[in-house]
Write a structure and sequence with these properties.
Largest sheet: 7 strands, parallel
Number of helices: 8
Strand content: 15-25%
Length: 253
């Protein structure tokens, strides 16, 4: 038995130009999926595409905040890759903003990509002719900051909490179409975005992040592995849940 074999599946991955999205796309390709890569940076998208195993993958440069263009995006995807079996949403913005200096537009920009675009992507993914009639799997990146607070992370943490709440209702609404919806509550992972954040921290502050993860900070593949499982038929009875992949962050005392 080829566990988590994704042969015959077409999967859309947002945020595929770097970090968790890139790692996930590469793994899905290794597992025989056909992958549609979406992000704004076309050059970096093509870099990701060049790392993929197999054939039939496509890269589409697209700004997820241009909601009026979503119909064109999904028509383009349907023309190039056919019906979709999966959607993995990794695009997002992480901003460290103290409450005393936070402006409404700061929060809006975080929600635009991390939450509102997720809702729109799911809406169009589930339209007739887009998702495979046999069903599919939707996975979205959440964060431990949706469950445990941190200073200056009100906007980011609340956007991820909103994602987790949406997942539960979406799962109920889409179950009759055999479309599963789950989120991954990620701990601190060594991505380009988090490395940039790290550079703004004192050594003491970064050591505190490491200590808060009993198994240490994660690698992008640690998240990609659970995404691949949730995309596979082996996860057919899992929906409406948020799965911690956090090196023990949430469970620590």
């Amino acid at each position: 038995m080829n566990f988590c074999d994704l042969s015959g599946k077409s999967i859309l991955v947002t945020g595929a130009s770097s970090g968790l999205g890139r790692a996930t796309a590469i793994l899905l390709g290794k597992l025989n999926a056909k992958v549609c890569l979406v992000a704004r940076d076309n050059v970096r998208l093509e870099e990701t595409k060049s790392c993929l195993s197999g054939a039939g993958h496509v890269a589409i440069s697209f700004d997820l905040q241009r909601y009026e263009n979503y119909p064109d995006l999904f028509r383009n995807i349907a023309d190039k890759i056919g019906p979709l079996n999966g959607l993995a949403h990794f695009a997002g913005i992480r901003k460290t903003i103290p409450l005393k200096t936070m402006k409404i537009n700061d929060v809006k920009s975080i929600f635009e990509v991390g939450y509102f675009s997720f809702v729109e992507l799911v809406k169009y993914f589930t339209k007739k002719g887009v998702a495979d009639p046999e069903g599919g799997s939707i996975v979205v990146a959440s964060s431990v900051l949706a469950l445990r607070g941190a200073p200056a992370m009100t906007g980011y943490g609340s956007s991820k909490a909103a994602v987790d709440g949406a997942v539960r209702s979406m799962a109920c609404e889409l179950a009759n179409r055999k479309i599963r919806v789950n989120s991954i509550i990620a701990g601190h992972v060594e991505t380009e975005m988090n490395i940039a954040v790290q550079k703004t921290l004192s050594e003491e502050a970064f050591m505190q992040i490491i200590k808060s993860h009993p198994l240490g900070i994660g690698k992008p593949d640690d998240i990609a592995n659970i995404v691949a499982f949730l995309m596979s038929d082996e996860a057919r009875w899992i929906t409406g849940t948020s799965i911690p992949v956090d090196g023990g962050f949430i469970g620590r005392s």
